[in-house]
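ok new one. same drill as before - structure tokens go in, u give me an amino acid for every spot. 409 of them this time. try not to just spam alanines like last time pls lmao
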């Protein structure tokens, strides 16, 4: 037995180092000691701890899952006497059951099986105070781990809820787009993107919507973010076995996004003004009264202060911080859309500005051969030199005056 004592003490010292090399050496020493004293509960606990340190979680769990009678038969009378009735009166716990439950829960935790880990820890929570110092320490660590796991599960639930909501908003955006409600579609895509920052479909759809209203700068930004996500996904799948089809699909989607970005950037160089009619959801033939009605509806619906009101979530802890960050992202995108809606109204509600805008649209759509003549006629008719090349944001200069006079919206 002297040899067993020596190996046990040596293994304990090695395990205190908490390194892989030390744990591996300790495992060898423990195995030798168990070959001499196979019923030592202390050695079994040390072996399980060494396996855990070496990240051999399944082996550690298998050791801990030995039938209860084996553990009882291999325990000394003194160890069996160290039992305590659970606080709910449902059973009796020995130190062997205690360390097994704790070590299994730790292993499940690092395997990502949080629910299984918590199930084991909840059983240990019913154990009352333990007079033995070792048992008390195990219970204390178990309680601490249970708190951590509950927090992670709460965050996981919040994250899953966000992902599901993102899918719903992206699908609704598609419906809005089909109905020609572009501002509504952009708003829903923005919500989806804020809720799930890796949702490629939402980024792709919003980029398409921005292309439709000729906001090529924002479309480029959306596509750049999409490409960044796809590059990470391609890199991840390339290092995983059995994901060849998925990797090929991601690569194809990435190349398509890169081609789209190149095309959009070329369009941006042309500095074409925004499609203000599409932004407000009105037709060129609609009256000023129709424009005003459309604006009122859009401004009320997309006011930044109303954006994300559905996010009535906890404001405390990590979950509260998660929803706070989402709400900030939603507000930022809503503010941009709201200003764009206001810009469209500032032009289309003013007869003179609308005429100038319509003229530029007409000239832009005129075939290349006759465009020069059309431009000269327009200049003579309106008696001013029309600067088409100044900026695609030609109308934005009037935004500040408009914003100050319509702050109630």
């Amino acid at each position: 037995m002297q040899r067993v004592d020596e190996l046990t003490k040596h293994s304990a010292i090695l395990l205190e180092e908490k390194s892989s090399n030390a744990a591996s050496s300790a495992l060898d020493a423990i195995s030798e000691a168990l070959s001499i004293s196979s019923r030592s509960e202390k050695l079994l606990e040390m072996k399980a701890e060494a396996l855990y340190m070496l990240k051999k979680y399944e082996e550690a769990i298998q050791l801990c899952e030995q039938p209860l009678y084996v553990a009882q038969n291999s325990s000394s009378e003194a160890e069996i006497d160290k039992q305590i009735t659970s606080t709910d009166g449902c059973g009796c716990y020995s130190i062997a059951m205690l360390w097994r439950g704790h070590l299994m829960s730790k292993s499940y935790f690092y395997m990502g099986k949080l629910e299984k880990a918590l199930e084991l820890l909840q059983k240990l929570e019913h154990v009352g105070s333990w007079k033995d110092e070792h048992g008390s320490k195990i219970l204390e660590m178990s309680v601490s781990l249970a708190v951590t796991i509950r927090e992670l599960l709460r965050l996981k639930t919040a994250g899953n809820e966000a992902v599901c909501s993102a899918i719903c908003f992206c699908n609704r955006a598609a419906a809005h787009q089909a109905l020609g409600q572009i501002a509504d579609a952009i708003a829903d895509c923005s919500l989806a993107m804020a809720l799930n920052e890796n949702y490629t479909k939402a980024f792709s759809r919003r980029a398409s919507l921005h292309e439709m209203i000729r906001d090529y700068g924002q479309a480029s930004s959306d596509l750049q973010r999409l490409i960044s996500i796809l590059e990470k996904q391609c890199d991840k799948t390339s290092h995983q076995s059995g994901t060849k089809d998925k990797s090929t699909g991601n690569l194809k989607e990435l190349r398509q996004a890169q081609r789209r970005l190149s095309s959009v950037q070329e369009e941006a160089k042309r500095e074409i003004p925004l499609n203000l009619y599409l932004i407000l959801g009105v037709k060129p033939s609609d009256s000023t009264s129709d424009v005003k009605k459309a604006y009122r509806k859009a401004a009320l619906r997309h006011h930044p202060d109303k954006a994300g009101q559905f996010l009535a979530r906890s404001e405390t802890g990590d979950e509260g911080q998660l929803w706070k960050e989402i709400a900030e992202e939603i507000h930022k995108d809503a503010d941009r859309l709201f200003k764009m809606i206001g810009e469209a109204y500032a032009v289309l509600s003013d007869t003179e500005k609308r005429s100038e805008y319509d003229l530029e649209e007409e000239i832009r759509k005129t075939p290349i051969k006759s465009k020069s003549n059309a431009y000269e006629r327009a200049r003579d008719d309106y008696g001013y030199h029309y600067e088409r090349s100044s900026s695609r944001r030609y109308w934005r200069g009037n935004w500040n005056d408009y914003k100050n006079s319509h702050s109630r919206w």
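The chain has a mean pLDDT of 80. and btw The beta strands are 83-85, 92-94.
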